[in-house]
Amino acid sequence: MELAGVHLGEEFTAAGEIPQIEEVVSRTFTGSEDEHPCSWIKMSLISRRALATGLFCWVLFLSVHLSAQQSNETSPQSGSPQIVVTVNDVVVPVVVRDSQGHSVGNLKKEDFQVLDKKTPQVISEFSMERRVEVQGIGATHDSANANPGVSEAPAPAPDRPPATPERFLVFLFDDLHVTPSDLMPLQKAATKMLAGSLAESDLAAVVSMSGTSTGMTRDRAKLQDAIMKLQPHNLYRPVRRNCPDIGYYDADRILNKFDPMATDVAVRNTLVCCDCDRKTALIWVQNAAREALQVGDQDVLNSLGFIAEIVRKMGAMPGQRTLILVTPGFLTVTPEAVAEESQIVDLAAHSNVTINTVDARGLYTTNLGASERSRVSILADRTASEYRGYSMGLSEEVMAEFADGTGGTFFHNSNDLEGGLEAVTVVPEYEYVLVLSLQNVKKDGKYHSLKVTVDKAGLTVVARRGYFAPKPENSKTRK
User: Fold this and answer.
1) 225 and 206 share a domain?
2) Which of 171, 174, 190, 302 has the alpha carbon at shortest distance from 234?
3) Per residue in 289-342, pLDDT tens?
4) 351 and 459 together in one domain
5) How far is Cα 304 from Cα 297, in angstroms, rounded to an integer?
6) Alpha-carbon gap, residue 344 to 364, rounded angstroms
7) Owning domain of residue 470
8) Closest Cα partner for 130 from 407, 431, 356, 427?
9) 372-397 residue pLDDT tens
C-alpha cells in the first residue's frame, strides 16, 4: 500500500474569511501476486487496510480544516445551537410536505403524534427550523435545454474576496459497491450538476469510500475532475464466479435465517460445478456461506464506520451541513449493522447534519442475465431471481433510513440522475425537531420502531423510523 501524499494549500482573504483549504489525497494499494485472485481473506485484508488509510486521510483533512477555521474566525457562526448527545432522549427530525411536495412550516407541537412500538410517546421538546434556500450559480437543466448535450462551465466570478460559506457539502461516492455500468452515467450526471447547483460561497468536497478526497474547495473544476477519475473498487467481491457461488444475501439466508430453500438451491447449483455427491456439496455450501458472511459483515461495518466518521467531523462545522451519499446501497441484515446504522442517524440528528441519498443504480431491474442463470432448473432460476430482487430492495433500506432519519431526501427509482443530484443539494426549507424522553422507556437494548403522524389531511411525513434503546446499566458486554 502506498500513500502518495497530502497537499494543503490555504488562501486567506483580507476580511478574515474562512480559509479555502485545498487538499488532494491519493491512495494506491498493491497486493502479493502469488495469492489466489479470488481469495476472500486477501480481499478482506486489503479492504480493511484501504478503508483505514482513507479514513485516516479524511480525518486528517477535516482536522486541518477545522483547526484553520477555528483559528481564523473572530466570532462564532450563527445557526443552530450545539446539541450534546445523551442517552436520555432521542432526536427525531421531521419533514412534512404538502401534495405539491413543498415543505410545510406552520405546524405546532400538538399537531404531531409519535408512536414508539405502537405506544404513544410524549414530545418533551419541540422546535421548527427554517433554512434559507441557497441558489446555485446557474440552472443546469435550463442550459442543457438551450444547448443539448453541452455542459457549459460557469462564467468567471468577479475579482472579489470569496463570501463566507453558508453551506458545507460532502459528496460521498460509494466506489466500493458501484458497478462500472452504473458509474459511467453517474459521473456524467454529477459533473453536469456541479456546473450550476452550487452557490459561489459553498464549500464542497468529493470523497470516495475507497479513501480519495478533494478537500473542501470552491473549485468546481477540481470537483468535476475528481468525479471523472472515480473507479469501481469492488474489493469485497470475487473477480469471477466461484464454486459454489454464494453471495452475502444468500449466506445470510442459509446461516442466519436457516432458509431450506436457499440451501437447497445452493447445493443443486454446486452439484453442477463440483462433480461431487450431495453431502460434499452441502459442506462446500456451508463453508462458502461462512466465508461470504464474514466478508460481507466486515464490508458493511467498514462502510458504516466510514460514514459515521464523516458525520462526526461534519458536525463541528458551521452553517448548513449536508452529506450527499451516492451509493447502490448495501445490506444491513445483522443486528450489529442495524445498531450501527441507528447510531449514525442519532449522531447526525444531534449534530444537525442532513444526509441526502441517491441510489446510483437509477431505475434497475432484478432479472438475471444469461451468464447468471444456472443449469439446474427453471425453479432454481426463479428462486435466484426472487432472492436477487429481495436483496436489491433491502439494499435501499440503508439509504432510506439515513435520509428519513435526518430530514433528508432519498432519490431513487429514476434514471434522471442529474435531476436527482440537483434535488439533493437543496435541503427542505422547514424542518421540525421532536425530542422524546427515554426516562419511561425500558432499557432493553432493543430496536424500537417509531411512527410519526400529523393531525392534518393531505400531508406526507418523512421521519426517523426507529432507534435502539439504551442497554441495562448492569448488562455485561459480551466478548
Assistant:
1) yes
2) 174
3) 999 999 999 999 999 999 999 999 999 888 889 999 999 999 999 989 999 999
4) no
5) 11
6) 27
7) 88-131+429-479
8) 431
9) 556 556 666 777 778 888 888 899 99
| CATH number reported for the structural domain that contains residue 66 in this entry | 3.40.50.410
Closest CA to 419 of 95, 162, 190, 83: 190
Query: Which of 89, 421, 123, 384 minimizes the C-alpha distance to 265?
Result: 384
Q: Tally the residues of the chain.
A: 479
In a domain, 176, yes or no: yes
CB count within 10 Å of CB 397 equals 17
* 238 neighbors 343 (Cβ within 8 angstroms): no
**Dihedral pair phi/psi, residue 247, rounded to 5°:** -90, 175
Set of cell numbers at residue 249: 444475501
Cβ neighbours of residue 261 closer than 8 Å, sequence gap 6 or more: 383
387 and 356 share a domain? yes
Rounded CA-CA distance 401/405 in Å is 6
Q: What is the pTM of this model?
A: 0.74
- Which CATH number fits the domain that encloses residue 458? 2.60.40
* Triad 403, 407, 408: Cα angle to 5°: 45
